[in-house]
Here is the input.
Amino acid sequence: MARMKRDLMIVSILVLVTIITSACNQAYSQAPAATFTPLPQNLFASAVPTNMSDVQAFATGTALAQLTTTPGTPGAPAGVTPQASATSTPLVVTNSTATLAVAQTPQSGVTATTIPAGSRPASYTLQQGEFVYCIARRFNVDPDETLSINGLADSQTIYPGLVIKIPQTGNPFPGNRMLKNHPASYTVSQADESVYSVACAFGDVDPAAIAQANGISVGATLNVGQVLNIP
Here is the structure.
C-alpha cells in the first residue's frame, strides 16, 4: 500500500515537471499589429488656426487675455508706467518754401560785432567808414574818454578792423548825438559808401536798423544813386 502511494507521487511529480517544461519551451506571443484609426477631420478645427491671419488674431487674443491692464492706460501691464512720448516741434513751412537766414559778411572781410539794442558793448570792431566820434554818438558815450582808454589821439589814423574799448562809466556824449534829422531817405553818392558810413552820417543811427529798414544785409555793397530809408 505504501509502495502504491509512493509510485503515485512519483508519477504526479513527473507529470508536473513535464507540464512546466512544455510551458517554458512555448514561443513568445507576438504583439498585435498596429491599426491606424483616423481622427475626425473637424475634431480640433476650433483649436488650431488654419491661416496666417487666424494665427495673428489667435496670438493677439492670447496676449491680450494674459495682460492685466492699469485703469486709464489701455494695453499697459499692471504696475508699469508708460514712458512719455518725446514731443517734437513741427516744422511750419509757408507756401512750401522754407526761409533761411543767411549771415552776411561785412565789406573788406571784417566781421561786424553784433550790438544788442539799447546796450553798450565792452568793445567794438570798427567797420569801413566808421570812426571814434561816430561810435561815441551811437552808444552815447564820451568821445574823449573813448580815445583815452584806447590810447588813441584825435588825429590818429583809424582803420577797419580796429577793436576799441567802449567806456562803461555812463558819461554821455556831450551835445547833440544826431547829425541829420531822421526818419528820412538817403541817396548814395559815392562808390565807397557803406551802411556803416551812412549810419555815421546820421550820428545816432544803428547800421543794423538801416539794413533792416531796406531789406539788405548790414555788409551789403551800395550803388551810387541807391536810395536808403533811414529809420
Summary: The CA atoms of residues 8 and 61 lie 83 Å apart. Residues 42-50, 62-115 have pLDDT under 50 and may be disordered. Residues 107-230 form a domain with the Membrane-bound Lytic Murein Transglycosylase D; Chain A fold (CATH 3.10.350.10). The beta strands are 69-70, 73-77, 123-125, 163-165, 184-187, 227-230.
